[in-house]
Amino acid sequence: MRTISIPKSGTGHSAPITHVAFSPDGSRLATSSYDGTVIVWNTADPARPTETATLRHRRLVNSSAWNPADPTLLATASADKTVGIWRVPQEGPATLVNVLARHTDDINSVAWLPDGERLICVSEDGRATLWSVLDGTFLAEVGSHEAHCMMVSVSAEGLAATVGEDGLVAVSDPASGSGAARKRHYDSSIEGCAWSRAGDLLAVARDDGRVDLLTRELEHVLTVEVSSSAARAVDWAEDDSAFVVGAYDGSLHWFDRSGERLHTVADLRVWPRSVAAARGLVAAGSFRNAPHLYDMATAAELSGPERATHGPNALAARGDELLIGGDSGTVFAVRIENGAQSRATPIELTDGPILSLTTDGDTIYAGTYSGHVIRWDGTRASSECLGAPIPSLTVDGGRLIAGTYNGEFLFVDPATLRLEERIEAHGGSVKSLAPIPGGGFLSAATDRTVEAGGARGRTKLWEHGNLVNAVAGLHGPEGSVVASASRDHTVKVGRVARTGDGGWSTGAPQTLLGSDESVKCVSLLGDTAGPTVLAGSYDFNLYCWQVDWADSAGTLASGRVLAGFAQGLSCMFQLADGRVAVAGWDGRIVFVAVDEYGAHIQHTLHIDDIAQSADRKQVAA
């Protein structure tokens, strides 16, 4: 397993901040990041937090937790499937005390029991496990979910609450080791929870934009309407008089204990995947290099990030320009001539991340994390907030289609950006859309399915064993080929055809193996008779397969690594000349072509070089 290696430029992180955690006395803040590090900040002066230590994992870090009994111990949870136990003194270097490494999947969250000797870890595999920390002994499994377990919170009296994408909230008493867990089920995914400081109330952050307050017995006390987007994270003030919620509308929301709204802070730089409160302060994650700190009572920002990160999330093309959209909210329009970058123009569309891009002629459309669709045709226009992040966009029949985190297709008027129609499309986030010549589009979602068709009457082509991250099509006179990339570590590829009744038919798709981790993006090269499949993985590798329709067993055993990156791969785009542009979160962008000798890399760019060479003149309001 390779280690993330993203060049650091200045202070703070080099990629978005996934989690924030205050020390028990509120004097220090640990921030976890996609760059594979945890940075510990001294927050004694919240207007000027300073870095005091940097801890490193091999993969992105999802969360951390300070020990309640020993303020120098910090647990860190990583996608490298380990939990690190670190001693982080107020002065002097941090040291690694132990590693809890017997996990089968990414660790999403950790929480200490009040004795400070045992730790609960929850994982993508749905399990909640209890560990003796200093000797690394596995003690027990204290809970399980049918889907990803997303968070654990332990109350002052030692009750452990776990929540997951299966909509289950479970409360157990791991200290006693007796008694069945209390459970409550929701129709929506639950990604965040937090016990009040007194331990009498559990706040549960729901995917439908609400927060429920529950008793220890999981009896309902109150439902708070937070946002039209998913509520992702929640934490309580030290006196339990108020709580703060981070929502996928890009905002932070303050409420008192009775559910009355106190403040709302909208800042597209904030990644509200995590919030934490202590000592009259609130911390929130960020898509930039440093956390955001606020006054708990007034919601006034005390400090924030000073530098954007440019991790690419989306690619598209406009004429002979490659368009690159990422975490900074800037789209870079890069013209490539004779295998080299000849010009890069920045288009400043928004302050928050761009998740998706598509074009219609010279017009650029961008889907954002905050749930807006932005149009650029020389001037900037934005839709209203559409209620959820927009991870996918395409144009079909003159209409702009947005795939949302909520599993919907939104049909948006391209001229006015008004929402015309909203359709429940998939049972999970619509991660990827791809146009089909002659009308219709492909879709891939976290409900594990790949579909084809128009707005209604769609055909399921196939299903994966886990969520589907991306779908791509290759179309020619002999028909169409579709490929999809999944978290089940596979790519599926199959020939599809329109049927007389307007549906789609497909034979059994071939399964391509190679990746050791989730496959994030996919594309196709060559012709439909014997296409070349490209796929990028969270294991940092770019894979390549040559499909032989007559020998599926041979294809299963084929494939090679075409290139290695320094972080996971994020997106691909098939260019008009048949090449494919491939981007990684380390900022590299490679151009892949295929000839009689097979697929090969023609040239490479880097997003930091593009950003530095681009004309910094602001071209959008």
Automatic annotation (TrEMBL):
Ordered alphabetically, the record's keywords are: Repeat, WD repeat
Cite the repeat ranges for WD.
Answer: 10-42, 54-88, 100-141
What single Pfam family name could you report for this chain, choosing any that match?
WD40
**Highest taxon of the lineage:** Bacteria
Stored InterPro entries: Apc4-like_WD40_dom (IPR024977), WD40/YVTN_repeat-like_dom_sf (IPR015943), WD40_repeat_dom_sf (IPR036322), WD40_rpt (IPR001680)
The chain positions of domain Anaphase-promoting complex subunit 4-like WD40 read 194-263
Q: Which SMART domains match?
A: WD40
- Record-linked Gene3D superfamilies: YVTN repeat-like/Quinoprotein amine dehydrogenase (2.130.10.10)
Q: What is this protein called?
A: Repetative protein
The record lists the organism as Streptomyces roseus
